Amino acid sequence: MATSSQDTDWQGRYFHVDQVLDKPGPRTDPAFLAGDGVKDFLRNQAKILVIGAGGLGCEILANLALTGFKDIHVIDMDTIDISNLNRQFLFRYCTLNTSKVGNLSYLGTRPKDVGQPKATVAAEFIMKRVPGVKVTPYFGKIQDKDDDYYMQFNLVICGLDSVEARRWMNATLVNLVDPENPESLKPLIDGGTEGFKGQARVILPTITSCYECSLDMLNKPTAFPICTIANTPRLPEHCIEWASVLEWPRVHGDKKLDTDDPEHIGWLLKVASARAKEFNIEGVTWSLTQGVVKNIIPAIASTNAIISVYRILGYLLDSARQAACCNEAFKIATSSAAYLNNYFMLIGTDGVYSYTFEHEKRDDCPVCGGESLELALSSDFTVEQLIELLVEKQDIQIKKPSLSTPTTQIYLQAPPQLEEATRPNLTKKVSEIVPNEGEITVTASTLPFSLSLRVTFS
CA 365 from chain center: how many Å? Predict the structure, then answer.
């Protein structure tokens, strides 16, 4: 049963927040109306969606609740692994319990959160720890929800570790925008961390640059040439990749490698260590083996805290104010200060360095732009080579692209019947199918948008 704010708010709960909301300041937005109205909106009307309940998501959920947001939804498709517990502080490995046998009492433990859905456990923890806050969890994929679901929120905050999920969410919010309905514009605040580096950005769909506009800023995924790992390994990663890519299928056949199974990781570690010893390579460890086969991005709790809300002191505080995910949510919801325009980077590898800049829109962005992407190809370029280019090109990066023109299905990845029917086109030259300055439409099942290419041949 719902309880009122008066029943759950303790004395002095909003003392510091109200210092900002009770009167305008030097950086106040002209639209800011200080007083009870903005406080009521923040605490009783604003509805926030947090996507991801991992390292960054845990920080975001806690800080939103403590800032005064009381209606929060969270989506996450993962369950809690024991390796999460060093930084995802809303989760616990076990709970102390007391059992009694006769006149003797025994203190023991019982399993708690490991194996449970992250969204559900995080929501329960926040509601228990911060009275009066309602957190609604959803254990599943963001793709499970329709447009009506996303329309109910005032803004969306992403704390994801997946580029594909970010691209899907970004495109969905851009597609939601109706010029005739201002309420359809849902600000997107995106945060991300990798080791001692992090970023936070504010995206106003169709107004500012979107996530797709900055795709070329992403690091390329690490890939090791097969010839190197097979013949001349030089790094411990080469040995681990050899064990997982070449030896596992040779020894185990069609048995799928389960990167979450300790026995499978143990087998890889043993085989990779033997390979490393043969080539006098040091450094093959359990954690590195896991990191290579699971493509784990290093995560550090302090970086998550900084990007989430900048809970740090002294010399970082001034720059930190400009870019925290939760700070930006607070500023957008209340208009109490100018929000970030529009990209913040933090680099903490050698000292501490932060930088804020405005990332510009791309006219040929397939999501928020309106122009076709110009692509110059050799007249000998085959359809198969074009597909490889679309996968690897830094500002496109579309996995498993399907290609078509208004009159021809060039190559379709699915369903299997159409893939088989269009497969012969892979060896054909693009210039045999598409005229010079002709347009190709590129789609992928994982992305809710299409890319228009205008190809020229040399």
Answer: 20
The dihedrals phi and psi of 403, each to the nearest 5 degrees, come to -120, 140
DSSP 217-229: GSPPPP---HHHH
Q: Which of 227, 239, 365, 368 is catalytic?
A: 227
Provide the 10 A C-beta neighbour count for residue 319.
Answer: 16
Reference 50, options 136, 128, 132, 110; nearest CA is 136
Gap between the Cα atoms of 30 and 40, Å rounded: 19
- Closest of 154, 150, 165, 132 to residue 54, by C-alpha: 165
Rounded-to-integer distance, Cα 262 and Cα 158, Å: 30
| 325 given a catalytic annotation | no
Cα 353 to Cα 34, 197, 201, 315: the distances in Å are 34, 10, 16, 11
pTM of the model: 0.76
Q: Which of 31, 28, 8 is nearest to 19 (CA)?
A: 28
Q: What is the pLDDT along the chain (458 residues), one digit of tens a residue?
A: 444 444 577 888 889 889 999 998 887 878 889 999 999 999 999 999 999 998 889 989 999 999 999 999 999 998 888 877 878 889 987 755 555 555 555 444 445 788 899 999 999 999 999 999 999 999 999 999 999 999 999 999 998 888 889 999 999 999 999 999 999 999 999 988 877 788 889 999 999 999 999 988 876 656 665 666 877 888 899 999 999 989 999 999 889 898 878 899 999 999 999 999 999 999 999 888 988 887 655 565 556 665 665 433 333 333 333 337 888 999 999 998 888 888 988 887 788 888 889 999 988 888 988 788 899 999 999 999 999 889 888 888 888 899 999 999 999 988 889 989 999 999 999 999 999 999 999 998 888 888 899 999 98
The CA distance from 172 to 158, in Å, is 13
Strands in 104-178 per DSSP E: 104-111, 134-139, 155-158
CA 371 to chain CA centroid, Å, is: 27
Question: Where do we find the tokens 């029917």?
Answer: 421
**365, 359 contact by CB (below 8 A):** no
Ramachandran angles phi, psi of 6, nearest 5°: -65, -30
Q: Where in 339-435 does DSSP place strands (E)?
A: 343-347, 353-357, 373-377, 402-404, 409-411
Amino acid making up residue 182: P
Please give the structure tokens belonging to residue 372: 């076709």
SS3 268: helix
What tokens does 446 get?
């994982």
Bridge partners, residue 376, by sequence = 456
Residues forming a β-bridge with 456: 376
